[in-house]
């Protein structure tokens, strides 16, 4: 798509009351590397990713999703996107300018249709990263984020119109209708998915592992440590990726995955998958059944950050 200005997903930023517990979990258990930790803010990198960080944790009185961040190709793309959004009546939180987060760069923030803060940036200095080795069960990169909303059709329309995301696939159900929309900003099957839920919140954040063996080793490490598993291990139909979902200490659902599908965007046609067929949710048949309890855990708490910009 020639006028797509967003190139990729950068990071997801979380605010939590118990900062020390959350930081310990994401570093010692989940496998992220602390880059900068100072006065209640931590920037955590994935060893295999050139992004300065893939998760930011901030100490706060209330749990919330601070923001979701995307990359753009260059400064001109950032300016053009900000101009388009402003012209279309989207609320800009900040105008394009220099950024003071690790790696610097040039970017701006705005509210999406549900009131989430979204950041877009370019010219962020690449982090010195490394190849994740065989049997090393740590994340290579942030794969995707899934967002809950009561009005997914409107959210999908916003991301299609304003950010030029493309629909890859949709999950539907005979009794519930369309419940999840997978959207892409490059040839990965999805960088964002929009889920139908009872309120606006983070559904889950997903982290790519090196391969099947590393994915299983990581899943097993968390199971042995007693981390609460939500769903998995299994392999989805949409995206063809593996999945094991866990809860972090503050009840955010996070996923280990691998082998997310890459598409030929010129020839791809979206599928409508009926997930009343159990092979749609899990091709392998190894995961615990998808039911109301599993779904409820990923609804998450009501997001206290809706239409409230994070303080940093």
TrEMBL record:
Residues 8-123, 141-259 form the VOC domain. InterPro entries: Glyas_Bleomycin-R_OHBP_Dase, Glyas_Fos-R_dOase_dom, GlyoxalaseI/FosfomycinResist, VOC_core. Signal peptide: none annotated. PROSITE patterns: VOC. CDD domains: BphC5-RrK37_N_like (cd08362). Gene3D superfamilies: 2,3-Dihydroxybiphenyl 1,2-Dioxygenase, domain 1 (3.10.180.10). This is Catechol 2,3-dioxygenase-like lactoylglutathione lyase family enzyme. The lineage of its organism: Bacteria, Bacillati, Actinomycetota, Actinomycetes, Micromonosporales.
């Amino acid at each position: 798509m020639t006028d797509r200005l967003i190139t990729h997903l950068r990071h997801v930023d979380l605010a939590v009351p118990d900062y020390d517990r959350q930081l310990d979990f994401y570093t010692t258990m989940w496998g992220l590397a602390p880059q900068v930790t100072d006065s209640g803010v931590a920037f955590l990198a994935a060893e295999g990713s050139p992004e300065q960080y893939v998760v930011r944790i901030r100490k706060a009185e209330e749990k919330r999703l601070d923001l979701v961040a995307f990359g753009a190709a260059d400064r001109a793309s950032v300016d053009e996107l900000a101009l388009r959004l402003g012209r279309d009546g989207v609320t800009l939180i900040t105008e394009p300018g220099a950024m003071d987060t690790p790696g610097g760069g040039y970017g701006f923030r705005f509210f999406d249709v549900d009131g989430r803060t979204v950041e877009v940036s370019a010219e962020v200095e690449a982090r010195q990263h490394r190849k994740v080795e065989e049997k090393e069960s740590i994340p290579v990169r942030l794969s995707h984020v899934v967002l809950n909303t009561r009005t997914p059709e409107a959210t999908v329309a916003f991301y299609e119109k304003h950010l030029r995301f493309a629909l890859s696939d949709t999950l539907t159900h005979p009794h519930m209708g369309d419940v999840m929309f997978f959207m892409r900003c490059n040839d990965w099957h999805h960088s964002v998915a929009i889920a139908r839920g009872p309120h606006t919140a983070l559904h889950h954040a997903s982290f790519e592992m090196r391969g099947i063996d590393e994915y299983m080793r990581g899943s097993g490490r968390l199971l042995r440590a007693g981390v609460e598993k939500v769903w998995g291990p299994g392999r989805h139909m949409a995206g063809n990726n593996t999945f094991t979902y866990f809860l972090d200490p503050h009840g955010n659902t996070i996923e280990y995955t691998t082998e997310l599908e890459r598409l030929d965007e010129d020839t791809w046609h979206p599928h409508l998958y009926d997930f009343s067929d159990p092979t749609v949710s899990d091709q392998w048949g190894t995961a615990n059944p998808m039911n109301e309890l599993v779904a409820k855990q990923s609804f998450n708490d009501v997001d206290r950050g809706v239409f409230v910009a994070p303080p940093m």
